[in-house]
Amino acid sequence: MTFYVQTYPYRRMARRWAENRERTLEINVREEDDAYILSALVPGIKSEELNIQVLEDVVRIEGDYKAEENQYLVRELPSGSFHRALRLPASIDAEHVEADITNGVLTLRLPKAESARPKQIKIQSR
User: Fold this and answer.
1) Count of domains in the chain?
2) CATH number of the domain enclosing 45
3) Which domain holds residue 61?
4) Which of 16, 22, 50, 57 is the 20 to 30 A CA-CA neighbour of 98?
5) Three-state SS for 102?
6) What is this structure's pTM?
């Protein structure tokens, strides 16, 4: 008796679904006293291929991984468009945002708006 074994019967359907969906950019965000620092992996993306927008407390990052039309045995690297919109706890000073891509890592320094920074209040004693 002969048995036919297929590892995943819906592989073609799953592959088609994975190729057609838009990806979400995965990020890390940490807070400093005067700014938020956002990091994201963007391998193979050049700075001119990214669209970064800041409006009040929302940061939006969009881009596109260029897909090669080769036949692969295994294909796990990202391809297609991606986006990420993130609302931060405080307003951002959009005029002073700094962006850098080094070794495939996007780093955004998002300074808090002056109104969102803590203020030291001096107490007058009499």
Assistant:
1) 1
2) 2.60.40.790
3) 25-67+77-114
4) 22
5) strand
6) 0.71
